[in-house]
């Protein structure tokens, strides 16, 4: 893997930072990671230079032509994906080892703190892969730092957001035996 790079701020999508994604094929390892969405105008120059260095180490002067021709994978994606902002660049960044995940003040975070849409930055490194018919440059994930909350991309709400507080009732519950005695004996008793 190339030198370590700290990414610019990104929105996280499909986070798998605490529980890995199951292997796609037998023999593959589970993967932690996610999709990192960089807003239009983000400075990705250092990341692109690191990726090009890796491609050039493998393919020499032909690297740029192979990337442009689509013959080797280039991790910087600009194709539209549902829920991603127009003009963004995004990429999947994964690892076979669980990354460290911290907050803005370097405090350890839990799975509850990370969700699709939160803002993060990551420690990554570029490397070359060759899986027979698919080869090219990608990034490996080291660690993640959450920078801020953001609007959820999956429209899911936390339980605290969906429910109101319920006042507790000091009235004792009806004892189970008494409750059963008052219940109909069968559905027939209910006229059903």
For this entry, give a set of tags.
192 residues; alpha+beta; OB fold (Dihydrolipoamide Acetyltransferase, E2P); seven-stranded mixed beta sheet; 17% helix
What report would you give on this structure?
By secondary structure, the protein is an alpha+beta fold. 17% of the residues lie in helices and 31% in strands. It has a single domain, classed as OB fold (Dihydrolipoamide Acetyltransferase, E2P), CATH 2.40.50.140. Strands 1, 2, 3, 4, 5, 6 and 7 form a 7-stranded mixed sheet that branches. The protein is elongated.
Which helices and strands, and how do they pair?
Blueprint (H helix, E strand, L loop, with lengths): L4 E2 L3 E12 L9 E8 L6 H15 L3 H6 L20 E7 L4 E3 L16 E13 L2 E15 L10 H4 L13 H7 L10
Parallel strand pairs: 5-7
Antiparallel strand pairs: 1-6, 2-3, 2-6, 3-4, 6-7
The description of the largest β-sheet is: 7 strands, mixed
The quaternary organization reads as single chain
Strand content: 25-35%
The second-level CATH architecture is Beta Barrel
Give the overall average pLDDT.
Answer: 89
User: What pattern of helices and strands is seen along the backbone?
Assistant: EEEHHEEEEHH
Distance between the termini: 69 Å
Number of alpha- plus pi-helical segments = 4
């Amino acid at each position: 893997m190339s030198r370590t790079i700290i990414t610019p701020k990104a929105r996280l999508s499909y986070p798998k930072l605490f529980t890995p994604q199951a292997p796609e094929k037998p023999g593959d390892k589970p993967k932690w990671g996610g999709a990192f969405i960089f807003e239009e105008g983000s400075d990705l120059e250092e990341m692109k230079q690191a990726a090009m260095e890796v491609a050039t180490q493998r393919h020499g002067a032909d690297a740029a032509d192979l990337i442009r021709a689509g013959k080797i994978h280039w991790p910087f994606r600009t194709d539209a994906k549902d829920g991603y902002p127009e003009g963004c660049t995004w990429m999947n960044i994964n690892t076979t080892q669980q990354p460290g995940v911290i907050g803005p003040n370097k405090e350890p975070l839990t799975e509850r703190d990370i969700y699709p849409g939160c803002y993060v930055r990551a420690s990554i490194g570029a490397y070359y892969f060759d899986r027979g018919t698919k080869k090219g440059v990608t990034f490996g994930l080291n660690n993640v730092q959450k920078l801020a909350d953001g609007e959820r991309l999956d429209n899911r709400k936390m339980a605290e957001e969906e429910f109101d507080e319920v006042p507790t009732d000091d009235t004792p519950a009806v004892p189970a035996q008494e409750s059963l005695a008052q219940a109909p004996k069968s559905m027939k008793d209910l006229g059903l």
